[in-house]
Amino acid sequence: MALAVLQDLRKTYRMGDEDVRALDGVDLSFAPGELAAILGPSGSGKSTLMHILGFMDTPTSGRITFEGADVSSLPPERRAWYRSHRVGFVFQSFNLLPRLTVVENVALPLLYREDAGGEAAREARAREALDRVGMGHRLGHRPTELSGGERQRVAIARAIVGRPALVLADEPTGNLDSRNVERVLDLLAELNREGVAVLLVTHDLAVADRAPRVIRMRDGRVQEDVRR
């Protein structure tokens, strides 16, 4: 069974008197445990595609199947369930809360899950996720006390603490130096080898080159879908 199937996916935004087609008939499928890069310039539709795949937005038309279920037009509470249970997010700007410690930031998504247990159980899972990304020695630090590479590793730990089927990484290396770029990409590849599907959304050819599948987008359409 495919992890996600997109059929004739379209997303139109109304801007003033003009309709802007962010997605214009996208057909794609992703397998469980797949590693793929979605490549394209600004305005190509790649971020809109990520928002829809991550249950942060809904398409104007078309069909989405996720883990065998039709999720094309879910109500907000069901989209929130998928975000907290089945999808993890990694962003270019890290999106860590500066007043919380590292372990508190990572445990935060578990607050919205009834199956995560109490505070001690949530912290234990956060510690486990931080150990996986090599940040178990920074539990009590705050994001402002970390380097950019360390913050991104904490953000990855937060993305995987809920044990998702899919991690969406939106320009995850955009704010990092070359050394930390390699460390973060190696970490995402390692998670993928453990069975987590990873989609890298990027405009960087070097980042896309690390993926065995590259999807090129332009003007809301898939220009090329290459498996290597």
Architecture overview:
- The protein has 228 residues and is an alpha/beta fold.
- It has one domain: Rossmann fold (3-Layer(aba) Sandwich).
- The chain contains seven helices and ten strands.
- It has helices spanning 46-53, 76-85, 102-107, 119-132, 148-160, 178-193, 205-208; strands at 4-15, 18-30, 35-39, 61-66, 69-70, 87-91, 166-170, 197-202, 213-218, 221-227.
- The strands form two sheets. A six-stranded mixed β-sheet has the order 6-7-8-3-9-10, sandwiched between helices.
- Helix 4 (119-132) packs across helix 5 (148-160) and helix 5 packs parallel to helix 6 (178-193).
- The radius of gyration is 17 Å and the shape is globular.
The count of helical stretches stands at 7
* Rg, nearest Å: 17 Å
Query: What is the fold-level CATH name, i.e. the topology?
Result: Rossmann fold
- Structural shape: globular
Strand order of the largest sheet: 6-7-8-3-9-10
Strand content: 25-35%
Domain count: 1
Total DSSP E strands: 10
**Regions with little confidence, pLDDT below 50 for 5+ residues:** none
Question: H/E element string?
Answer: EEEHEEHEHHHEHEHEE
Query: How is the biggest beta sheet arranged?
Result: 6 strands, mixed
The CATH class turns out to be Alpha Beta
Second CATH tier, the architecture? 3-Layer(aba) Sandwich
Average of per-residue pLDDT values: 92
What percentage of residues falls in helices of 4 or more residues?
A: 25-40%
Instruction: Report the span from N to C terminus.
Output: 21 Å
